[in-house]
Amino acid sequence: IKPQEISPPPTANLDRSNDKVYENVTGLVKAVIEMSSKIQPAPPEEYVPMVKEVGLALRTLLATVDESLPVLPASTHREIEMAQKLLNSDLAELINKMKLAQQYVMTSLQQEYKKQMLTAAHALAVDAKNLLDVIDQARLKMISQARPH
């Protein structure tokens, strides 16, 4: 099983210096890539620390998004919150697949559940990028509203 390449479309053309949301999305994607590269040879007892790293990266990202929410236009909050909920359900799915991979260790199903773990992790990374896109759109909206016409 090979991990899928994560190659999302480019982000908005914004200044990324001191952009904590961007940094944390990148951190989450890196955690997913690292987990994906290590999962195949790893014994089941190593799954939990790998998934925990992804979970911690997600928690950091969501906290950063919560901090930046008040400065973004109120009309964009619902879409951002929906993207956050999706990420939480993606993590729950990853944890569920990890438990199944552990439960079916040394059976013919183990590889299938490892593959499903990779698929769930990939979805999480893609949805994190989508969250960044939603926030970027909110930022662009805020910038355009701030400019005098």
UniProtKB/TrEMBL annotation:
InterPro entries assigned to the protein according to its UniProt record, in alphabetical order: Focal_adhe_kin_target_dom_sf, Focal_adhesion_kin_target_dom
MF term (GO), any: protein tyrosine kinase activity
Pfam families attached to this UniProt entry: Focal_AT
Superkingdom, taxonomy of origin: Eukaryota
Residues of the Focal AT domain: 11-142
Listed GO CC annotations: focal adhesion
GO terms under biological process: signal complex assembly
Designated name of the protein: Focal AT domain-containing protein
